[in-house]
Design a protein that fits this description.
The chain is of the alpha/beta class and 256 residues long. It is 27% helix and 33% strand.
Length: 256
Amino acid sequence: MDIGIKFCGGCNPRYNRIQCVEKIKAKFPEHSYVTQKDKKICDIWLIICGCSRSCADSEDLISLKKKFILKSFKDFDMVRDYLEKEQNEIGEEEDIKWKNPINDKLPPALQGRKELILGEKKEMNRTITQEDLISFAKLTGDYNRMHMDKEFAAKQWFLKPVVHGVFVASFISTIMGMDLPGSGTILMKEELEFLKPAFIGDKITTEVTFSRCEEYKRHYIGEFKGICKNQNGDILVQGKCTQMMMKNLFLVKNLA
């Protein structure tokens, strides 16, 4: 995990703050420890105040899991307890995954070949949340201020943080991987246009159309057109994708 550390100004510290931090680092060396200069978003933030005034500002620091406001050396016991609990839970989760590797998010197994019809469409709706934005930034490492910094974005063209365009476009991939054509397809090519921005709170409607198909001995090559619209009907992303579909998994019924 990324653990962020921010100290107060240290005008009147009542305990040895640095020593307390070093003990945490020594006990849990598997984590990455950073400061607010390195990152604004961490799994855990330790806001280390030298006294009960708690004057350290942490509003711009985002915690994916928990933020601790530490006012005395005794408060660090809470951090140790939390990290030890996290260690135990991770170990239990790994045991469960080893015993039961099938994730409940997997689509159901195909019974025979999945039948597809040229021209058919599939649609999905999703509302974008701040948690989506944070998770995507953490996953990709893209912490561009245009996405993550409200004060910076407020001075730019769109006046507020813009959702990563590739995240919005990924909804097209979701439909193709899960529904049309579905599980077992392989993406070969993708061409996208980003026409308008998405923002936190937007309800995105994504539609994919099976537009063209070529048949080969063991597989099909299909073209799928996708669009993502917001709640106002504005097209945010549009594009087309080429998918390979093996004949042992798929059957396209209405080819000429």
